[in-house]
């Protein structure tokens, strides 16, 4: 009997005293239970959670897209292009091969170069038609559809003209530059005609000769129209 009484006393002393909870303790217990039931918060990474002003919910680290450069006649902006190849039909009509390329940095700005070269002799040293003309240029495209443009150009090259047998010939080289302006007329999906007029300054060093005898040489300065072209342009494009 004594052993049973002793065991009951030990159990009674080891168990904490039970009492009613106060209102404050009950509220604190409920808040702890609610926190345990709620899902864990996501870790905060500023690099990926920061939102930009224009793109809500978009990470600040994004791959930059290729700049938009549109075909002059593509108002719906379904195509873009990087460069064009052109040929001056007026030069080709005089049996002077002419080619040029242009790279569009953006919709408003293009940089390119145009070159012509020929050397005809008609199987005789008395006749000669030779020309080399190189024209780098920079263009700013204007308007809603970017068909018109203005720009700056530089020119340099050489020439040798003697179109009649036993006649006077003239040869030399030139350098200069000026302003240009024009318009692109679409004639197909990737084709257009480029009408261009350039006005500027040229300085040439020349020599006049008959056969192999040179009898006059000097320098001349010229201000006025220095470039005229009607070019057939092919545009390399790709779908967006």
Summarize the structure.
The protein has 240 residues and is α+β, with helices and mostly antiparallel strands.
Would you give an account of this structure?
With about 240 residues, this protein is an alpha+beta fold. The chain has a domain at about 80-240: Porin. It has 4 helices and 8 strands; from the N terminus they run αααβαβββββββ. A hairpin with a 6-residue loop joins β5 (about 150-160) and β6 (about 170-185). The longest helix has 15 residues, at about 25-35. About 15% of the residues are buried.
In percent terms, what proportion of residues is strand? over 45%
Q: Strand pairing plus helix content: what structural class?
A: alpha+beta
Q: Reading side by side through the largest sheet, how are the strands ordered?
A: 1-2-3-4-5-6-7-8
Shape: rod-shaped
Query: Runs with pLDDT <50, length 5+?
Result: 43-52, 58-67
**CATH-defined architecture of the domain at 79-239:** Beta Barrel
Order of helices and strands: HHHEHEEEEEEE
Let me know the average pLDDT: 77
Distance between the termini: 96 Å
CATH fold-level name of the domain at 79-239 = Porin
Query: Approximately how much helix is present in the residues?
Result: 10-25%
Number of strands: 8
* Largest sheet properties: 8 strands, antiparallel, barrel
The radius of gyration over CA amounts to 41 Å
What count of helical segments does DSSP give? 4
What is the C-level CATH assignment of the domain at 79-239?
Mainly Beta
Oligomer: single chain
